[in-house]
Write a structure and sequence with these properties.
Blueprint: E1 2-15, E2 19-26, E3 30-36, E4 52-58, E5 67-74, H1 84-100, H2 108-123, H3 127-144, E6 163-166, E7 173-175, H4 176-179, E8 187-188, H5 206-229, H6 235-248
Antiparallel strand pairs: 1-2, 1-4, 2-3, 4-5, 6-7, 6-8
C-alpha cells in the first residue's frame, strides 16, 4: 500500500531512539499517523507541529501504521516565532484537529481551511484580524464534525436582523428582542459572526469580540464535540485563551 498527499503536521511523538510517530492532517486521507525513521532531510529532518509537508506513506497492509517520508513545503511557525499569540493559535488548531478527527476519515474542506488559516496567520499581525478568522475556523471544525452553529436567523422569530445571542442548547442565533428576557442564559454573538458582516473583528474593541467568539465556540467544543468523544478540550486551546485574555487585560 502506498499514497502521496499534502499534509499539516499535527503532532510528533518520539518512538525509540531515533524514530517518531507523526500525525498529519492530509488533504485526501484525513488524520493519518505514520512512523518516521531517522532524522535526515528525506525523513522529515527537524519536523515540527504546524509544518506543511508532502507525505509519502507506505505499508504492507492498509490497516498497519506504516512509514512516512516527508518533504517540507513550508513552516508557518517559523514566520511568527516572535508572536506568542499567533503561535498559540497555530498550536491550538493542531491540537484540536489531532484530538477531534477520527483516524483516516477524509476532510478536504477542513484541510484547506487549516492551510489557509496558517497562511493568514503569517500575514496578519493584529489579533483582532486573525483572531476573528480563527473563531470562524473553529465554527468550521464544529460543522465538519456534525455540530454546526446556525447563525442565519433568529431561532424564536425567524428574523435575520439584530442578531445578538446564541442559544447554548440549540446552537441557533437569537435576536436582541427575543433574547431580552433570557439574555443571562445565552451566549453572546460577536458582530463579526453575524451573516453579512466582515470576517474581521470591529476595530474599536477587536479583542473583546475575539474573546466573545472564543467563549461561544468553546462552549460547543466542550459540551458537544469533546463531550461526545469523552475527551477534555486540549490544553493548547486553553493556552490560547490565556494569551488573548492577557492581551485584553494587561
Amino acid at each position: 500500500m502506498e499514497w502521496q498527499d499534502d499534509g499539516v503536521v499535527l503532532s510528533v511523538r518520539h518512538h525509540g531512539e531515533s524514530a517518531r510517530i507523526v500525525a498529519l492532517l492530509t488533504e485526501h486521507h484525513g488524520r493519518h499517523a505514520g512512523l518516521l525513521r531517522g532524522s535526515g532531510a528525506a525523513r522529515g529532518g527537524s519536523i515540527q507541529v504546524g509544518q506543511i509537508v508532502r507525505a509519502d506513506w507506505r505499508a504492507r497492509l492498509s490497516e498497519q501504521l506504516g512509514y512516512f517520508t516527508l518533504e517540507s513545503l513550508g513552516h508557518p511557525a517559523a514566520l511568527i516565532l516572535d508572536d506568542p499569540a499567533r503561535l498559540a493559535a497555530l498550536s491550538s488548531v493542531c491540537a484540536l484537529v489531532d484530538a477531534a478527527l477520527p483516524e483516516r476519515e477524509p476532510h478536504p474542506a477542513l484541510f484547506n481551511a487549516t492551510h489557509s488559516l496558517f497562511t493568514l496567520l503569517s500575514e496578519m499581525p493584529e489579533p483582532g484580524d486573525w483572531g476573528a478568522l480563527y473563531v470562524r475556523w473553529e465554527i468550521g471544525l464544529l460543522a465538519e464534525m456534525g455540530y454546526g452553529i446556525d447563525l442565519e436567523s433568529c431561532a424564536a422569530t425567524g428574523s435575520t436582523g439584530n442578531l445578538t445571542h446564541v442559544s447554548p442548547r440549540t446552537g441557533r442565533a437569537v435576536s436582541a428582542e427575543a433574547a431580552a428576557p433570557y439574555a443571562e442564559r445565552l451566549l453572546g454573538l460577536p458582530a463579526f459572526l453575524v451573516p453579512g458582516r466582515s470576517g474581521v473583528a470591529a476595530p474599536n474593541h477587536p479583542l473583546v469580540e475575539v474573546e466573545n467568539g472564543l467563549a461561544l465556540t468553546g462552549h460547543f467544543l466542550e459540551n458537544r464535540l469533546f463531550a461526545q468523544l469523552h475527551k477534555a478540550v486540549p490544553q493548547a486551546r486553553y493556552r490560547l485563551l490565556e494569551v488573548i485574555h492577557r492581551a485584553l487585560h494587561p
